[in-house]
Amino acid sequence: MSRNDKRPRMRRPAAVSDLLSTMLKGTPAETRIREGRIWGIWERAVGSRIANHAQPSAFRDGTLTVTVDSAPWMQQLSFLKRELILKVNDALGYTLVKELYFRAGKVVNWAAPAPPAPVRQRRQLAAEEIEEIEEQAKAAGTAELQAIFANLIKKDKENR
Fold first, then answer.
1. Is residue 153 scored above 60 in pLDDT?
2. Strand pairing of 63-68 and 54-60?
3. Global confidence as pTM
4. Is 56 among the domain residues?
5. Same domain assignment for residues 23 and 100
6. Domain count for the chain
7. Co-location of 23 and 90 in the same domain
8. E strand or H helix that includes residue 64
9. Which residue range is the domain that position 56 belongs to?
10. CB–CB of 97/62 below 8 Å?
């Protein structure tokens, strides 16, 4: 193969989503990928305030099901239904959503970090407890096993 037979160099790598769209053009999977974009553009389309209380949960035959965290929000969103449909379709760049269906449920904000796990305070062991631990560990056999068992028992008692 001569130097002139090589394919031209790419300016930059193609995005995987672009490659998939090209490969799946005209298949049912293409439709699913288009529908799946709703989850990615939801917050940008409706705004963070609404997205904190309402998240898409399903899409079928032009109807987007949205889970809403409270009755007052559900009522307010029902008044904004047509506007929300327009905003979502505009953000998608094509008409996909024809109807919105609201249902009550728990809204999970995936962007918010999970709260840190509480740090448990270990209690100080009394001298009698330490003696008892050492006595229990003696039954383990070798000095190495005794140290391992003593450490396990100690940590268990400190955490209670």
1. yes
2. antiparallel
3. 0.57
4. yes
5. yes
6. 2
7. yes
8. strand 63-68
9. 19-104
10. yes
Q: Considering the domain boundaries, does residue 2 fall inside one?
A: no
> Do residue 56 and residue 88 come from a single domain?
yes
In a domain, 68, yes or no: yes
Compute CA distances 15 → 24, 65, 130, whole Å. Answer: 14, 29, 61
CATH of the domain at 72: 3.30.300
pLDDT (tens digit per residue) in 38-68: 888 999 999 999 999 999 999 999 999 999 9
Same domain, residue pair 78 and 153: no
Q: How confident is the model at residue 108 (pLDDT cuts 50, 70, 90)?
A: confident
| Cα separation, 76 vs 60, whole angstroms | 23
| pLDDT at position 126 over 80 | yes
Q: How confident is the model at residue 111 (pLDDT cuts 50, 70, 90)?
A: low
Q: Would the pLDDT of 28 be above 90?
A: no
The count of other CB atoms within 10 Å of the CB of residue 96 is 17
Q: Which amino acid is at 50?
A: I
Express the helix, strand and coil content of the chain in percent, nearest 5 each. Answer: 55, 10, 35
